[in-house]
Amino acid sequence: MSAATRPPRRSGKYSALGLLRKGLRGSDWPRAWRSHDLRSSYDVVIIGGGIHGLATAYYLAANHGIRNVAVLDKGYLGGGGSGRNTAILRSNYLTPEGVRFYDRSLELYQHLAAELNYNVMFSRRGHLTLAHNDSSLRTMAWRAEVNKLQGVDSSVIGPDEVKGLVPYLDTSATTRYPILGALYHPPGGIIRHDAVVWGYARGADSLGVQLHQKTEVTGIDVSGGRVTGVRTSRGTISTGTVVNCTAGWSTLISDMAGVRTPVRTSPLQAAVTEPVKPFLDAVVVSGTLHVYVSQTDRGELVFGASVDPFTSYSMRGSLDFVEGLAGHVLELMPALSKMRLLRQWAGLCDMTPDYSPIMGHTPVEGFLLDVGWGTYGFKAGPVSGETMAETIAEGRPAELIRAFGLDRFERGALVGEKGAAAVGH
Ligand code: PYC
Fold first, then answer.
1. DSSP reduced 3-state for 415
2. What is the pTM of this model?
């Protein structure tokens, strides 16, 4: 085996001094995954090298022994939604289907560092969704009951308890949007999103999956109602199974196979501040004010909003967004007025009519979907990979994703998650 094809070394152990030396030299870190020529055929081709595509590839190989798999990305691994989200994890959804699905994801996240032998910096923080009016309080109570019935830890707490958890919040009765209570979800938290991508990529590579960056899909071949191949900027591949794991451009990829999906794409913007000493343990969300905030392990505050109110493929930030964001953050935490924003960015969100994803088989045999991830795709990465891999291997939808099939729109069997999917749309 040549050095170029040998799997990278996995678990080198270094002393602190050894690590420092390596850091300063910067030259001989083992590569986390390999580059390959494109084969002319694969058992499974996954389009999209974000967390969903990589996790699907990893579980295909790890759980089902399906290793002749290619993951294609037109850019670099994790350069789309996986690198542009705010890394929030939670499972306090509104529908039983949603709660069960995201709860499995949280479970997989909790054990991911051990599974992948990669420090993904999972941090359980507690997640608070603030209620500023009676109808929000009612929805929080509804969510809490659905969560409890599914065995998920969620409850409605009052302003004093909220203040105890997040002392910097303005819980006085004289604010414009007084905090009447919150849905408190102790298992929620954050994680290092890039590490999750790199961990899955390294794990999939070590099991024999081929990862192809800068490989754009230009067409999908369908003959007699079933997939036969994928055309790419680096050549044509023959395959009987193609999985669309893209976000942002998912409709364009589905259209290539002749599959129409009810998806509209809008940007979602976020921003990060300079780092400060840790003061915010919990993840705080206000649907009414369209804002969420958490503090990273490095001390930065990460803020986000709801999706822009128009469809677009633009990933540029806007002044309008930061102005609105700053106003809303200060309504919640006036003490942050002196903090400086360092960066802002946007990612693309594929919104479905019911705010649930579209997963599983399509009318084109061998063409599967894992799309429509709106503003909740990152937190679903592990369970999506696990269930899509099972669906491909077993030839039938995994139990946890049965409700999310494309045919639900024809059947009128929507899974309405708008009340809990994100931060108010
Ligand atoms: O669903 O928790 C969420 C979320 C946070 C940011 C975007 N979506």
1. coil
2. 0.94
Q: CA torsion sign, 182 to 101 to 110 to 196?
A: negative
Mutate to test the pocket of ligand 1, among 82, 84, 85 (most ligand atoms within 8 A of CB): 85
pLDDT of residue 27: 67
159 Cβ closer than 6 Å to some ligand 1 atom: no
Our answer on whether the CB atom of 422 is closer than 6 Å to any ligand 1 atom is yes
Phi, psi (rounded to 5 degrees) for 357: -75, 175
Judged on CB neighbours under 10 Å (0-12, 13-18, 19+), 130 is buried
Q: Indicate the fold that domain 125-189+265-350 takes in CATH.
A: D-Amino Acid Oxidase; Chain A, domain 2 (3.30.9)
Topology, domain 32-119+193-263+354-421: FAD/NAD(P)-binding domain (3.50.50)
Q: Whole-angstrom Cα distance, residue 307 to residue 264?
A: 11
Torsion sign (Cα): 321, 305, 122, 181: positive
Q: What are 193-228's pLDDT values in tens digits?
A: 999 999 999 999 999 999 999 999 999 999 999 999
User: Residue 95, SS3?
Assistant: coil
Q: Is the CB of 376 under 6 A from ligand 1?
A: yes
